[in-house]
Each structure stands twice: as C-alpha cells, then as structure tokens.
Design brief:
Low-confidence stretches of chain B: none
Shape of chain B: flat
Order of helices and strands of chain B: HHHHHHHHH
Order of helices and strands of chain A: HHHHHHHHHH
Low-confidence stretches of chain A: none
Helix content of chain A: over 70%
Radius of gyration of chain A: 19 Å
Mean pLDDT of chain A: 83
Strand content of chain B: under 5%
Largest interface: A-B, 59 and 62 residues
Oligomer: heterodimer
Shape of chain A: elongated
Radius of gyration of chain B: 22 Å
Structural class of chain A: mainly alpha
Distance between the termini of chain B: 40 Å
Number of helices of chain B: 9
Helix content of chain B: over 70%
Chain lengths: 198, 225
Amino acid sequence: MEESRKLSGKDLITIGIFSAIYFVLNLAAMFTGFVPVLWLLLPGVTGIVTGIPFLLMTAKVRKPGAVFIMGTITALLYFVTGQFTVLLLITFAIACILSELYRSVTKYDNSFTHMMISFVFFCYGMLGSPLAIWVYKDSFLAQIQQNGMSAEYVRSLSGLISTPMLIILCISPVIGGVIGALIAKGLFRKHFKKAGIV
Amino acid sequence: MNKITVINHLDPRAGLWLLLMANIGMFCQKNSEQGSMLSGIFLLLMLVHGLYKAAGKGIVLLVSFHLLLMYVFPQCPAWMNMVFPVLINYSLRMLPCVLAGLLLLRTSSMQKMIAAMYTLHLPQGFIIAMSTTLRYFPALKEEFVHINAAMKLQNISWASRLECTVVPLIVSAVNTSDEIAAAAVARGIENPGKKTSEITLHMGISDWLIMILVTVGILIVVIAG
C-alpha cells in the first residue's frame, strides 16, 4: 500500500504535462486582467479557464503531492518570469496545502464533488495577485497623489478598493471554480469518456 | 555569438538570487523614485550582459509610464482615470521583477536551469515534473498551430472554437504523457539513484560580484527611501 502511494515516474510526467497546460491557460486568464474589473476577479476567471487540466490531472494521479507539485511549478514559473510577488507565493502555498489536505481526507476519491471542492481550494491561490492592491493600498494612493492627481480622484479610487469589492474578490474563486469544474465535467462526459481517457 | 558584451555568463543560481532581491526590493518600496532606481539597477545589469534590445525596451517602458503618469493622466477625464493609473502604477512596481526574470531567462538555457535545480537540492520528483513542464511548452505550441490549421480547413464557427482547440490539445497531451512515460521508464527514470547532468555549473567571480553589488545596491535604495 505504501508503495502505491508514492509518485512514480509516469505520475510525475503526467503532472508535468498537465502543469504546462494549466500554466498556459492560467497565463491566458492573466491577460484578461488588462480589463481592470476582470483583474479584480482574476481568481474566478482563472478558475473557469483552468478547470479541465486540474480535474483531469487529479483524476489520473490519485496520490499525495500531485497538487502540491503542480502549484509549485506554476509558482516557480511565475517567479522566474518575474510576475510573482511574495504575497502570491503565500496565497498559493496555503491554497495548495488546503487542497492537498482535502484530497487526503477524502482519500483521493475521484468523484466529481470531491474534485470540484479541491479545485476551488486550489483556485484561491490566484487571490494574491489582485490582493496586492489592498495590501499596498496606502503607498499606492500616496504615489498617485504624488503624481499630481486631485484629492477627489484619489478619494474615489480608494472607494473602489473597498471592503465590498474585497468580499467579491474572495467569493470569486468559489464561483469560478465551480463553473470551471462544470465545464470540465461536460467535456469529460462528451469527449474524454468516449476516448477512454478518464 | 560575436556580440560585444562585458560579461557573457550568469549562473542561474545567481540569477535566482537577483530575482529574490528584486522581489524583496519591490516589497519594501515606498515611493516611485525607489521603484525607478530598482528598475535602473536591473536595466544596467542587462546592458552589462549585452541584452541591449531588451534593456532598450525596458527604458522606453519606464520613461513612457512616468511621462503618462505625470503629464497625460492629470489632463484626462475622470472615467479614464478610474482604472489606468492604477494599472500603470502596478506595472511600474512589478517592473524590477519582470526585468530580473527576463535577465535570468535570456542568460541561461533550460539545461542550465535544470542543473541549477539539482545543485540546489530540490526534491528529484519535483525536478522531473518541472523539466517535463518546461520541455512540453514547445510541443504545446506546435500542437496548437496544427489544430488551428485543421480548424481553418473545416470552417468552424467562433462559438465552438474553444472546445475544438481544448479537446484535441488535452487528448494529445494525455497520449504524449503515456509515450514520454514509456520512454522515460525504459531509460531508467524509476532508478532511485541520483541523476547526473552533462553540465557542471560553477559560480564565477563575476557572479559573486554581481550578487554582492546588487544586494548592496538594493539595500541602499530601500534604506535611503
């Protein structure tokens, strides 16, 4: 039993390949962040887009560490391209650990509900990117004022960086994650089951 | 190959250290002068390593962002100002990290990165997965081009384009992973012994010098601000 819980070479390669797909889709979601409102909802958008590789990977590799490796690869790739802040690193680590914990509690069951919930946990990792605005809020606003913006403008801007917006941000991974998982489920049923992949 | 450079080698480990420093600098940054100075340090490093084009783009970006913030946005209507200055301020803050990342990517090959991961004593399982990911990116791109070409032939509507891209991509990924796994097992990936690398990395004097200079420089910028 102990032996079969260890990641084999084949598992590692599966994780590696799906991490590549996950990263590309995640990056694509990142680009929608140029539309500012979507950026505030980035964790949700990422969830919608990246459901397929995550669910397929977790269905194929039902062993401890798989999600953690996927998360670490994503984090490291973002770190190397310089888009990763310490904040994002922390949220990513927490999200991966929660997702792993949930998977180990449910004994790596590949029923849809369990995979979906572990995916929602994983989605929370992207929270760190927009969260930076709230954490650096004061220095952000001071910098804008320093650039010669009117006080009124700064006030309305700080209104946008508000608590209700933060709550929306925190809920977005749940909604995005569920939608992403449902899309993945639909595709699984329509294509991958027939092809004998899942 | 015959580019004129002051230094033509940067150890990936030194590059990672610079990246870490850039992150710390960004984290401690309090005003925009500090940010510009941090970006300046990395632009200078790029010039030293002969990345003239990338450094040029970085300088243009830095200057135009600042000009926009100082002269254009105060004149713009309020609705425009709701979003863009925030975005540009954020980009300016991220710029030192992006530059450091670019420096690392341009100066070291994939093999060097993997060799560096081994010398940093990362878990072997992680390194295998990571190198698979890195090597799969070109294949993914190739696959994407093929699928796009096939879609053009069949006149597929915009609505179903996404599904028609993602599904074959995933199916081919699953098949590829089976094939690579079989090949890797045949070559002894399951061998629990330590893997060896063709490349031996060594930190040169220039690496240490750059690491020390940049660390001191960033410390000065952070403390002085």
